[in-house]
Design brief:
Blueprint (H helix, E strand, L loop, with lengths): L4 E9 L4 E7 L4 H16 L5 E6 L3 E6 L6 H14 L10 E8 L7 H8 L3 H8 L3 E7 L6 E3 L15 E4 L3 E5 L2 E4 L4 E3 L2 E5 L20 E6 L2 H11 L2
């Protein structure tokens, strides 16, 4: 059992209609597994007054109607759920394949990543696309996924000065994590590539291509394939 995992969940108030439920410390797969397990069970059988459950790295937020329930009642319900099946596994997530064109106009920071890691472009592409990344949480902007499991060989610091605008679809690295920018936004991650997929499309029945608990697999593509898929996505 991970030393980062709490023996039992801990609670924090967050405003007048949200309760934070802490499962452990740090970025830890076992802690996140418990987050996903408890949050999924709460979504399947929500206690009275619960409106939404939002998982993160080490905790999840329970959004509730303060006219129908209160933190004391929710704490009792959540502890009861935890004690019923303390070692229950979360539902198996899906593997989502994301095509990425690395470097060039789509990866303006890949030379910097190469300089700090000592890796060539081809090695960066191969290592970055060689594993499945668990989606720990969605946040920052609609659909921005924080991914775990990146190879330490790709570790690169954030930019000293964040960009004011990063194009939608950009794939970046920050320290030991990788992630994708679904919408144009400011950001300080090192951009190594771009996907032609629309990661966030509010008109779709499901606006996002993935959710917390899924796994991302990147697939390198050429610039010509990028443009073909880009046009297809928007036709």
């Amino acid at each position: 059992m991970s030393s980062n995992l709490y023996d039992t969940v801990r609670f924090r108030l967050s405003g007048d209609c949200s309760l934070l439920v802490d499962c452990g410390e740090g970025i830890d797969p076992l802690v996140n597994r418990k987050v996903l397990s408890l949050s999924s069970r709460l979504r399947e059988n929500p206690p009275r007054g619960v409106q939404n459950v939002v998982p993160a790295y080490r905790c999840f937020a329970v959004i509730y109607d303060p006219l129908r329930t209160n933190p004391v009642a929710l704490k009792s319900e959540i502890i009861s759920i935890e004690n019923t099946k303390p070692d229950a596994n979360p539902p198996e997530g899906e593997v989502v394949f994301i095509p990425v064109c690395y470097g060039g106009e789509f990866g303006p920071d890949i030379d910097f990543v190469s300089s700090v890691t000592g890796l060539k472009l081809e090695e960066i592409m191969e290592i970055h696309s060689s594993c499945e990344y668990p989606v720990y949480m969605i946040g920052f902007t609609p659909g921005f996924c924080y991914l775990g499991g990146m190879n330490e060989r790709l570790r690169a610091p954030r930019r000293e000065t964040p960009r004011l605008s990063i194009p939608a679809g950009s794939v970046g690295i920050a320290e030991t994590q990788t992630g994708m920018y679904p919408v144009e936004s400011p950001g300080g991650w090192q951009i190594i590539g771009k996907t032609p997929f629309r990661l966030f499309a509010p008109e779709r029945e499901n606006p996002f291509l993935y959710k917390a608990g899924d796994r991302i697999r990147f697939e390198p593509i050429s610039s010509s394939e990028f443009r073909r898929l880009y046009e297809k996505e928007r036709s």
